[in-house]
Write a structure and sequence with these properties.
Elements (H helix, E strand, L loop, with lengths): L1 E6 L20 H8 L2 E4 L1 H4 L4 H10 L5 E5 L2 H6 L6 H11 L6 E7 L8 H8 L8 E4 L8 H9 L3 E2 L1 E4 L2 E2 L10 E5 L12 H14 L6 E5 L6 H15 L9
Parallel strand pairs: 1-2, 1-10, 2-3, 3-4, 4-5, 5-6, 7-9, 9-10
Antiparallel strand pairs: 7-8
Helix pairs in contact: 6-7, 8-9
InterPro entries: DUF72, UPF0759_sf
């Protein structure tokens, strides 16, 4: 199944565009879960929530809901993958309070961090086998065979990333699930995606993953509610292409 959602749900300019005007912000998550079956939590990157917060998200979401969580920048941007044991243990000690709602962990690397396959391997081996990990390198030196081998050995997904309708990463399949992030489209109004760009991503996913394999797709173009509109449009195109897709409305 393709699981389609957005990167975050608490955007003030989504009021009236997505959330009813009188709905209190404290109930936005509950409303979001009626429309989508997954979300990517980005605020954990800037400030790792306490375990109680993750537990509360689990209690507030339905059984079929999935939460992807972005790894704290303390590991990726401050430590730059050095000495990963404590940051990974702290992250897992909190995020695992999501229980069966926990989806992939997103490890986004700094754009100025050159390739270090050994450090990546040392980090990935700290995650238990039952936790899916997706890695988003952003320096071009990462696109090498040794890096791909690390991802394959540790069964981590390479994040497929899009900006302005074009892939900015190799389209490597490195494990049994996929992870796609769409950052900014070229359509109007900005930063929307056009139909052709969305259809091209449906095709790429279908070529790499069969319908029984989970593929997580998150729209990170939040301004003006573009992410919501594009997520629904993408899901519709995927269904018409014969793919199973999580709920979007």
């Amino acid at each position: 199944m393709i699981l389609v959602g957005t990167s975050g749900w608490q955007y003030r300019d989504w009021r009236e565009r997505f959330y009813p005007p009188k709905l209190p912000q404290r109930l936005w998550l509950e409303h979001f879960t009626t429309r989508f079956a997954t979300v990517e939590v980005n605020n954990a990157f800037y400030r790792l929530p306490e375990r109680d917060t993750f537990a509360a998200w689990r209690a507030r979401t339905p059984e079929d809901f999935c939460v992807a969580v972005k790894m704290s920048r303390y590991l990726t941007h401050i430590k730059r993958l050095r000495d990963p044991a404590e940051p990974v243990a702290r992250f897992l000690g909190r995020a695992t309070a999501l229980g069966d709602r926990l989806g992939p962990v997103l490890v986004q690397l700094p754009p100025n961090l050159p390739a270090d396959p050994e450090a990546l391997d040392a980090t990935l081996r700290l995650f238990p086998a039952e936790v899916r990990v997706a890695v988003e390198p952003r320096h071009p030196s990462w696109w090498t065979a040794p890096v791909r081998q690390v991802l394959e050995r540790r069964r981590a997904a390479l994040v497929w990333a899009d900006r302005r309708g074009r892939p900015v990463t190799p389209l490597w399949r490195t494990t049994d699930f996929g992870y796609l992030r769409l950052h900014e489209g070229r359509a109007q109004p900005w930063p929307r995606y056009g139909r052709a760009a969305l259809a091209s991503w449906v095709r790429r996913l279908a070529e790499a993953f069969d319908d029984a394999e989970p593929t997580y797709v998150y729209f990170n173009n939040d301004p003006g509610g573009a992410a919501v509109v594009d997520a629904v449009a993408f899901a519709g195109l995927a269904r018409r292409a014969g793919r199973s897709v999580s709920r979007t409305a």
